[in-house]
Automatic annotation (TrEMBL), chains A, B:
The lineage of its organism: Bacteria, Pseudomonadati, Pseudomonadota, Betaproteobacteria, Burkholderiales. Belongs to the D-glutamate cyclase family. Its EC number is 4.2.1.-. It is an enzyme of class 4 (lyase). PANTHER family: D-GLUTAMATE CYCLASE, MITOCHONDRIAL. This is Putative hydro-lyase D5039_03025. It comes from Verminephrobacter aporrectodeae subsp. tuberculatae. Keywords: Lyase. InterPro entries: D-Glu_cyclase, Putative_hydro-lyase, UPF0317. The keyword Zinc-finger does not apply. It holds the Pfam family D-Glu_cyclase. SUPFAM superfamilies: PSTPO5379-like.
Length: 257, 257
């Protein structure tokens, strides 16, 4: 299935699950939708926190298209799940934004680690959550984001367990892809970045870490949702974690060397 | 001091210590000197174990010069210490090879991690053994080398402790330098590669690993000395660990990207 065909399937309401491992050659994106009044602050937040918020595209105010990422994309309907926040609290999970779209909304697409996951799989590095058909495990760390206007909060990280040799290779491979979070921010003891219990992720699904494995942590595109919580805006929208926009951009086009 | 000046100082017998941190912009090299009869086997050993034995230069049979690494190099006198092996046992530590050189000897220069250490220091990453004016800690692992002719033995690794963020950066930086061992081969639990006690290195000096640090292990150019031991040759020569040949090759020239 091509990304365009997949988006049509989602738009028709026939897919509502995690997009991990789907259309693997193409970049997936985190979505943030905010009122135009705070878009300048949010763009500054992205610039200050580039590992968590590598911007792939920004829509025109009021427009649901993101032509830079694919012809015909409609961010109101092409993701398999949405979170709607009111006053910083998750108020509703939505299958579409058709009913809540407003003329002053701006869409932001942010790179997603699913892109480098595909490169890891191609390099023969197994990913437990993909093998087990789970969403990746994500945690709210105690690493503070750099604040911009009302946006702050803590860095969210995604975690994948590896044996050391695979972790070293994963660091090399993900370093090639700064547009999708790049190299990890941490590995080893989760307590050093303020994570108490790996078996209790804040988003996504837990996976086992075997005795000869190390948990490796990447900055995660769910971080803006922590920034949205901290901003307590009357209205803010994001994708449901793991339920991404699949774009027409080949992952390999995002490689820097 | 230039590398040529440093080599003259050593040749005059005025320097007999570890070369860690000296002439930092220039590549240092591990030395192996073997009878011509086994040089083909040893070259094959290097080809089979490129992370431990990245060849920088090979001398002509009987010649002590290595013109590819610097004008006027004399491998008999330009290193601050030598180990002489007989039947696979360390028989003698020598300040010079003048008395033991033979017409059938071949010199091999192998890349040394001191090159990427300089790049780590430039990137603001502290190295404990350098700060403490120690030789780097080296361990005989249980990772078997790929054998060629009489040469086998286990991989020797050098260890540097880092916090995770610095370890990730060190993996990125050392990956640029395959000619000087490249990326690490392991990090974390030393027992997973058969190292029992980090405080008892097989070569060099122990350094402390702090509670928030991870030991990171690189393939080491002392590995050929384990191969020499396993080969039980009547005569074999190597540098004294940490006491390297300083070449005229700028480290930056060894970078692959």
């Amino acid at each position: 299935m091509t990304p365009a065909e997949f988006r049509r399937t989602v738009r028709a309401g026939r897919f509502r699950a995690s997009t991990a491992g789907l259309c693997g050659d193409f970049a997936q994106a985190n979505l943030v939708v905010l009122p135009h009044a705070v878009s300048s602050d949010f763009l500054r937040f992205c610039a200050l926190n580039p590992k968590a918020c590598p911007l792939l595209a920004v829509g025109e105010p009021g427009q649901w298209a993101l032509p830079a990422l694919g012809a015909g994309i409609d961010v109101r309907s092409d993701l398999p799940g949405y979170y709607l926040y009111r006053n910083g609290e998750l108020a509703q999970e939505l299958p579409s934004l058709a009913e809540v779209w407003q003329d002053d909304l701006v869409a932001f697409a942010i790179g997603c680690s699913f892109s480098f996951e595909q490169m890891l799989l191609r390099a023969g590095i197994a990913l437990r959550h993909v093998a087990q058909h789970k969403n990746v495990a994500m945690y709210r760390s105690q690493i503070p984001n750099k604040a911009a206007g009302p946006f702050g909060g803590q860095l969210v990280v995604s975690m994948r367990p590896f044996r050391a040799a695979d972790a070293i290779r994963a660091i090399q491979i993900s370093s090639r892809f700064p547009a999708v979070h790049g190299a990890p921010v941490h590995f080893g003891d989760p307590a050093l970045i303020g994570i108490g219990d790996l078996q209790r992720p804040d988003y996504g699904d837990a996976v086992e870490v075997l005795p000869d494995e190390t948990p490796v942590f990447w900055a995660c595109g769910v971080t803006p949702q922590e920034a949205i919580r901290s901003a307590r805006l009357p209205l803010a929208i994001a994708h449901k974690p793991g339920h991404m926009l699949i774009t027409d951009i080949p992952n390999e086009r995002l490689a820097v060397f």
